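Predict both folds.
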Amino acid sequence: MLASFARGHTYLQISRRLGITVATVDTYMRRVRAKTGAVNTAELVRLGLQLEWPVV
């Protein structure tokens, strides 16, 4: 999910690809921010691009 976000997909696009609600995507991204300490979108994108997981 983070890698998809880093590649420019919106929460709506991610939710449709995963079959979950936009609210769930938002919740997951808030959890990622909390666990990584990322305070802005740029930091999230940097982290997402470093992942070697396949983009969903």
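Second protein follows, with its predicted structure tokens after the sequence.
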Amino acid sequence: MTDRPGERFGFEAQDCAPALRLEAHQAMARLQFETVHRRLEKIEAMMERLERRLWISVYGVVGMILAQAVQSMVQVTP
């Protein structure tokens, strides 16, 4: 008998079809999860850029409203 796992009674371990299918399925699942993870990172980066643009536009609108308010107050009081 040998002490190495996968060997029995002096014979080498053989890969069987179900084990190979399972390994292929696990590799495919791992690749799919990595792809989904990369896509999510890209989506999160796009959302951050969109949020930044949104806040810039909000600050722009608020600035315009304040500028119009100040302008109207300057025109009313000489």
